[in-house]
Specification:
Shape: extended
CATH class of the domain at 96-187: Mainly Beta
Structural class: alpha+beta
Order of helices and strands: HHHEEEHEEHEEEHH
Length: 287
DNA sequence: CGAATTTGACCTCA
DNA sequence: TGAGGTCAAATTCG
């Protein structure tokens, strides 16, 4: 997959920069400088973005390059309460490609307004999970036959965090939504979605990623009116379509950034010369 | 009054 | 058989 020596070096350098910025971020947060921290987050996002581009340029983003090491969906469900594997039960013909994101919502605000219209069609208590899972489908399912659905569940550990799993692509007019389009462009070509089960992809090839509105990918969008006490409203979509979570715990008193996959990042940095190794083996292996 | 939500029942799969 | 996912009638909302 290579012949990208220069890019590798550029990527390693970029990642080193990211690492430095993370440290700086921690420092700023320790100093109680949320504005400065947020500014740094923007730079951080840009740097990550550049890294992704470099990786793409080298073709390190290829759906087929994933190895087969085990990583269940359940493992991706943070906390998940150790509950059952939500995706293990799947109907025949159900879309097998999905996107999972994690978002933090501001209390008393509609949590997951992703700019698209959804209609709730069910809710279910999930074994081992503290909160029920809500099921949404595209409002235009009937009128336009749009197959997009999403599942939303509160994270056990933090009631302000939601795990959102998108299934299928919008085939309705909403598909033209800029946010949805952006996401599709980001994810579709590289197939950066978790692929369910190991069944052949063929029949589900059209099941692309559904609409999500990353206000600006990897950027932070503090809630309107959020003051000193704002709890991050970070619709942060990882470029890989996996769930990163970069959140602020400022309201709780201690300002801190928690990043899911923190261990992976550490490893990421350590092995910056082959940065995507862990990604494929650890993160991408959904099966 | 139409659209959205709620919720118990049913379906599918492992 | 149990658990997740979906259906659809009843209810609520704007």
């Amino acid at each position: 997959m290579d012949g990208c020596g220069g890019e590798k070096r550029a990527l390693a350098s970029e990642l080193a920069q990211v690492q430095a910025m993370v440290r700086e971020l921690e420092a700023r947060m320790d100093q109680d400088l949320p504005a400065a921290a947020r500014e740094l987050c923007g730079e951080l996002a840009s740097s990550v973005d550049r890294s992704i581009r470099i990786a793409r340029a080298c073709g390190w983003y290829s759906p087929g390059s994933r190895d087969g090491s085990p990583r269940s969906d359940g493992a991706q469900h943070p906390g998940g309460g150790g509950g059952g594997n939500a995706q293990s039960k799947r109907r025949k013909g159900t879309p097998c490609v999905r996107t999972q994101v994690r978002v933090a919502a501001v209390q008393d605000m509609a949590p997951l307004d992703d700019g698209l219209s959804w209609r709730k069609y069910g809710q279910k208590d999930i074994l081992g999970a503290m909160y029920p899972r809500a099921y949404f489908r595209c409002t235009h399912r009937n009128s336009q036959g749009c197959p997009a659905t999403k599942h939303v569940q509160r994270a056990d550990g933090d009631p302000l965090l939601y795990d959102v799993v998108y299934h299928g692509a919008h085939s309705c007019a909403q598909a033209a939504h800029p946010g949805a389009e952006h996401l599709r462009r980001q994810l579709q070509p590289e197939g950066h979605a978790d692929v369910e089960q190991s069944s052949p992809l063929a029949p589900e090839a059209e099941c692309l990623q559904a609409g999500l509105e990353p206000v600006a990918p990897y950027s932070f969008a503090p809630a309107p009116g959020a003051g000193a006490d704002f709890v991050g409203y970070f619709p942060l979509l990882s470029p890989t379509g996996l769930e990163w979570q970069l959140r602020s715990c400022y309201a709780a008193g201690g300002l801190g950034v928690g990043m899911d996959y923190e261990p992976h990042f550490e490893e990421f940095y350590k092995n910056a010369t082959d940065p995507f190794q862990w990604e494929y083996s650890d993160l991408y292996a959904a099966n």
